[in-house]
Amino acid sequence: MTDPLSEVIELLRPRTVFAKGISGAGRWGVRYSDFGQPSFCIVLGGSCRLAVEGESSVTLEAGDFVLLPTTPGFTLSGFDPVMPVFIDPKVTPAPTEEVRHGRADGEPDVRLLGGYFVFDSPDAALLVSLLPTLIHVRGVERLSTLVRLVSEEAAEQRSGRDIVLSRLVEVLIVEALRATQGEDARPGLLRGLGDARVAAAIRLMHEDPARPWTVAQLARQAALSRSAFFDRFVRSVGLPPMEYLLSWRMAIAKDLLRRRQLGLAEVAQRVGYGSASTFSTAFSRHVGQPPVRYARALA
């Protein structure tokens, strides 16, 4: 059976870049500007406050895991009122040792292990838009273990390091997203996969993207009326079914063009278009440039 979540993560092609220890003590606070790349952290001990732009602030405790797929601006601090120190991660050199905020001596009030990575996919923005802004998971030991493995591997220069890191980060993302599926998730792929009726339709679209699906066909597969299915899909995923299908087809097409292993007609056929010209028109309208020019720019 096709697994849409695995397919999305595989197309994102995550690659670890950096991991470090972070601690804070006394009165402290740091304000990070928008970063744009995914970041993560696990709380090893103690507690602190996290406030992400556009989200309610949360208290982080030992064992908590946080994933920010695009890392908007955020503030990390203790619980005493303080003017946070501003940090621009795009211009501030990455530290080589553990970062300490607030009082320099004595035991810290909180210890975290965090880092960031990049998505190598040229279509990352589309795929990431299907994920929540903030993923906060509490008490999942597997995530703590994975973050420690990522940190250890990133700190050493052993053979096979890059492939081990990429696989660890893929598993890390899957575990985090698994823990946030369900009706409480925000509209997007995770919430859609948490709804059995909607998930059935999503799996069909991923399993056979070239098929000329209609809303009526997908509704029958989901055992719902056409109108009920359409409304439920939009509420869960945040997009109409045909718009989601088009986005997924274009994501596949971009990946195939990047690989440069198939001709334009074959790529068109793989994503449900009867001719290269029809596909080129649809691709140009969706992406903003013809597929040939897109592939040439990537090369």
Task: Give a verbal description of the structure.
This protein has 299 residues and is α+β, with helices and mostly antiparallel strands. It folds into 3 domains: 4-178, Sandwich (Jelly Rolls); 189-239, Orthogonal Bundle (Arc Repressor Mutant, subunit A); 243-298, Homeodomain-like (Arc Repressor Mutant, subunit A, Orthogonal Bundle). 43% of the residues lie in helices and 21% in strands. The protein has 12 helices and 10 strands. Strands 1, 2, 3, 4, 5, 6, 7, 8, 9 and 10 form a 10-stranded mixed sheet that branches. Helix 10 (264-270) packs across helix 11 (276-287). The model has no long low-confidence stretch (mean pLDDT 88).
Secondary structure elements and pairings:
Elements: H1 4-12, E1 14-25, E2 29-32, E3 39-52, E4 58-61, E5 65-68, E6 74-77, E7 85-87, E8 99-102, E9 110-119, H2 124-128, E10 135-137, H3 141-155, H4 161-178, H5 189-193, H6 196-207, H7 215-221, H8 226-237, H9 241-259, H10 264-270, H11 276-287, H12 291-298
Parallel strand pairs: 1-8, 2-7
Antiparallel strand pairs: 1-9, 2-6, 3-4, 3-5, 3-6, 3-9, 5-10
Task: Briefly summarize what is shown.
By secondary structure, the chain is of the alpha+beta class.
What class, by secondary structure content? alpha+beta
CATH architecture label name of the largest domain: Sandwich
The CATH superfamily of the largest domain turns out to be: Regulatory protein AraC
Question: What percentage of residues falls in helices of 4 or more residues?
Answer: 40-55%
Number of domains: 3
Total DSSP helices: 12
Rg, nearest Å: 21 Å
CATH topology of the largest domain: Jelly Rolls
What CATH first level of the largest domain would be assigned?
Mainly Beta
Query: How many beta-strand elements?
Result: 10
Mean pLDDT score? 88
Categorize the overall geometry.
globular
Order of helices and strands: HEEEEEEEEEHEHHHHHHHHHH
- Low-confidence segments, given as residue ranges, are none
Beta-strand share of residues: 15-25%
